[in-house]
């Protein structure tokens, strides 16, 4: 048991929690927040791996994930705004337009 | 060079039509007409200049070759022999007629229609002269896609279904052919120490023998071509496509597109895989005969005029398959003749069906009847082509079918006899057309439909002259293709 | 003289082209001149040719003219080339001469018809095709003419196309003859396979060397050719189309369905005599078919009430005689019967046409009657024709030809007492129904008023034909009566001489019996029908049933209907939608079904997707863990 | 805690806590630059972004009420079980690896920057494009869509949107600068 493995475990737990969040919440905002957690977990795993091999690549990947997360959040939240204005709800289950 | 000119006239003409149509519909039609007439005159002028060479049945009258993508051994190689010349002539003739017969029929998106029409024609023309397999495949696709649009946009009520079916069937075949082409390409490359090429003449030297590989590759080509032909279990796209397509579309489908299949078999399957194709010859002939009888049976049952004619095509194309795989000079000459005469006669029947539909707004033969009273000229014209379709001597189809059967009889008397029985069945369905449409009491309540207009006269008269000429003096055609046929028959 | 050959078919062809292109713009007299004139020109050409043929017979007994090479492929070479020898000459004489008379007649007969031009165009085309048929020097060209006459027959039977039954009759005629044609075509293939040529001269020359007499292949070939002939000549079992074919105008029945086209089968067999002689089996079959046909058709003629159907069945029966003669090897007798039959049967049809028109399109003989006084010219000419048909001794052409056939059917090498008896019975029946026809139509009470008297133009051809019906027989006398054999002298340049049995019985005896039988037939008819109208048939149920059976032509139509037509229609109907197409549609529908199953999962619920992804990941990881 | 809160703002606060702690983890892994970025971007920019949205949409007590109704055991048990399974498997996978002791080495920002603009230059540029696309996309989506609206949904328009739009762009730009520092 070393620290990298510990960190990876933490990352896995975080990822799992994020996933549970995405799966259980109906509110789009909460889902987005959960996605952020998952992304963070993934980044953490990268950094841990990078540290394990003593390479900067892991951190670089984290940077990219960070950038991506930022973009995703901005677009996602813009969509949330639109959805809320149009549908007056945040419930994903009621937003199903592809239904059957 | 003339071949390049011909194809590019059609391609450019098509684009020009599209552009012009934005301004003026009539000008667009004239542009199309001028383009197809130019494309028709080119080979004729060329023929007049080179008559002795062509008539002697020499091989490879024109050979035009430039590099296209040399890295992969792809060349822009066009060549024409007697067979190609005949098919080009048929293509350009029917092209002119197709433009003429859609003169009034197409009222919307005229420009795009003529664009598609001309591009299909260009593709067909290209297929008949491309001597590079990659280029061949290219033209093969060029003729399919515009045809799909012709059916899907200007077709009848059920056009979507028909267009999809047409496309899926032919595309399946096309992809199989592409696979086979690639397989052949690699096998040839390996055999000739890395000399990878798509050139037809180079590939002819590939030795394949009669192994499983050869058989599979051959089947890939064959399936593509017999779908086009069509052979019986693979024919079901044809009635739908034919009956739903606009008149010009049906004309081109029946007159030309089906011929590309037969052409492909004669040009590629037999020379490239002589042994492999000989080993399946009997089965192919059997399927041809099945096609003859089965198509005739189905044709008799139809009530939709265009569908009926479409099934007669299935029946007639059975003769082609029978003749090709008989491997006899006579039968092959008959096949070439059948390609021509079927193109003319069935094309004419489709044009007639189109004219009737324009007047009566129906294709159901139960709602027609007694039309001879109203349209004696059209009745007489229909009689000519109905008789051609049932193989009356004096008209071209007889010569073709006679030679095919005569050639096939030497190989397999039983099959030839069954095929001859198909002639009786052909009489059944052909007479049904006359009886239901032109004989009997006139049924239309409204004013009787008008007889043939001058424009239609031109179309029908040229087809009639062609079919009678082919029936009474077919020798020039036989002379022109004799070189090719002898080569293939020797295999 | 060679160069004239092409003109004979070219004149009618010219007429056809002119009439079909410009027919609608021309006035009736012009059409009549073109239509009848071209055939008359052909007839004149024929007569000129014939005279010079008789005066200076050509080298080898035939003239030939090559028009152009039709097609040459590999070893097959087919030319459009014409050939005239004695046999052909007889046929083209009948075709053009009788044809010209019928054309003249029809210029008057059809004058009220709107489609005057179409009628003459078809008639001209018919004459042209028929001429090509008999003048062809190879079998492919013969087949061209063969199909051409079939086409014209179809066009003319269905001439009044607005009546559905006419169209059905036309279709039936075309289809049934087409069956025979196809057999003929297969025969041609077989011949080509065996001999490598389709030129008649070559075939006849090489056949004896190539085939073993009585061998399987020659028998097959000849049987196929015979079936072809049977289709065109309406012999059993392909005879059912001819009675229905009477739906066409009367001149058509006279020209096509009595004088010329239906004898094409006779021509074919006579022309291919070299082949048929090599196969005794086929010869016997031809004779038997002929004998049965003449009897069956004769019986049917007895029961008919439609004047034209009586004549139609009688035509079938008379062609049966020709087949019988061919079968027993009496070649020249068959051709001679064709020769006389053409005159008297054309005459009978034309006269029937006059009567029918005069009585407002009344076809039923029991609605006629008493016409002897009202239409004396028609009566006299009809009498001449009927006499020839029933072969009244000495005074009619029919006697000479039919008597020869009767005689040969016993005494020729292929002859047989049974055949003779059948032929004799046929002769009796013929006499009976001819008498019945005469008596019912011309004697008794007048049941329909005569609506108009025929034109002179229609009577003249009748008189000419009547003259020939009486005198045409005089060019060939039975050997024992008077040795004059103008006809067989000519014919036997082409056809082999009839081989007789040894120790043949006396010909006198046979002539006596034949004459007696004919006269007794006439007498029986007189007894049965004179002064009464044939109501007596209905009185006995047995007789009535027989009459119905005969009336329907021995129920052949019904038989075919059940054996061929119904199953065919059933087959086509059930498969109208194309089974194979269904298969593809099933594939398409299967994938659509699959699609709809999958699209349930495509429901837009985000969480479902994620669960799907999760399940996939779980599955993969579990898999890795377990393996 | 983040995923179980009913009130969005509470959840966001817990999220910030989570980010801080993971930042500490990074620091302990020898990645100070990343730890700093984590705080600045995640805890700073992104959470601010969320909070803006929450404020704009005026999500408050009734939302929390709603969430309470939605978050029933029967909703979350099955996913949670599945995820638990996944977690177990992942941990098993982690421990099935070879257990070598890891040297924790500090990777300096300098080294990071060198390799970032060295071998990963294309990826950096692509990320730039991605952010650009994010900006443009967010701006486009946040725009007034009067004409393009689905006909069933046209009632949902309010005046609020104008303001939303402007603020949106602002936030995105701040975030961009944060990243490119």
TrEMBL record, chain A:
InterPro entries xrefs: NADH_UbQ_OxRdtase_chain4L/K, NUOK/Mnh_C1-like
Catalytic activity: a quinone + NADH + 5 H(+)(in) = a quinol + NAD(+) + 4 H(+)(out)
UniProt-listed Enzyme Commission number(s): 7.1.1.-
Protein's membrane topology: Multi-pass membrane protein
Compartmental location: Cell membrane; Membrane
UniProt KW keywords: Cell membrane, Membrane, NAD, Oxidoreductase, Quinone, Translocase, Transmembrane, Transmembrane helix, Transport
Highest taxon above the source species: Bacteria
Transmembrane residue ranges: 6-23, 28-48, 60-84
GO MF entries: oxidoreductase activity
A Pfam family this chain is assigned to: Oxidored_q2
Principal subcellular localisation of the protein: membrane
First-level EC class: translocase
Protein family per UniProt: Belongs to the complex I subunit 4L family.
Quaternary data: NDH-1 is composed of 14 different subunits. Subunits NuoA, H, J, K, L, M, N constitute the membrane sector of the complex.
PANTHER family in UniProt: NADH-UBIQUINONE OXIDOREDUCTASE CHAIN 4L, NADH-UBIQUINONE OXIDOREDUCTASE SUBUNIT ND4L
Function, in words: NDH-1 shuttles electrons from NADH, via FMN and iron-sulfur (Fe-S) centers, to quinones in the respiratory chain. The immediate electron acceptor for the enzyme in this species is believed to be a menaquinone. Couples the redox reaction to proton translocation (for every two electrons transferred, four hydrogen ions are translocated across the cytoplasmic membrane), and thus conserves the redox energy in a proton gradient.
Protein name as catalogued: NADH-quinone oxidoreductase subunit K
Lineage: Bacteria, Pseudomonadati, Bacteroidota, Chitinophagia, Chitinophagales
From TrEMBL, chain C:
rRNA-binding recorded as keyword: no
Catalytic activity: a ubiquinone + NADH + 5 H(+)(in) = a ubiquinol + NAD(+) + 4 H(+)(out)
Keyword line: Electron transport, Membrane, NAD, Respiratory chain, Translocase, Transmembrane, Transmembrane helix, Transport, Ubiquinone
Domain of life: Bacteria
Localization per Swiss-Prot or TrEMBL: Endomembrane system; Membrane
EC numbers for this chain: 7.1.1.2
InterPro entries per record: NADH_DH_su5_C, NADHpl_OxRdtase_5_subgr, ND/Mrp_TM, NU5C-like, Proton_antipo_N
Ranges for domain NADH dehydrogenase subunit 5 C-terminal: 433-623
NADH:quinone oxidoreductase/Mrp antiporter transmembrane domain span: 136-429
Transmembrane domains' residue ranges: 6-23, 30-54, 86-104, 116-135, 141-161, 173-192, 212-231, 252-270, 282-303, 310-336, 342-359, 379-400, 420-444, 456-475, 508-529, 606-626
Gene3D superfamilies in the record: 1.20.5.2700
Record's bilayer topology term: Multi-pass membrane protein
Signal peptide annotation: none
Main subcellular location of this protein, as a coarse class: membrane
Top-rank EC class of the record's enzyme: translocase
Name this protein carries in UniProt: NADH-ubiquinone oxidoreductase chain 5
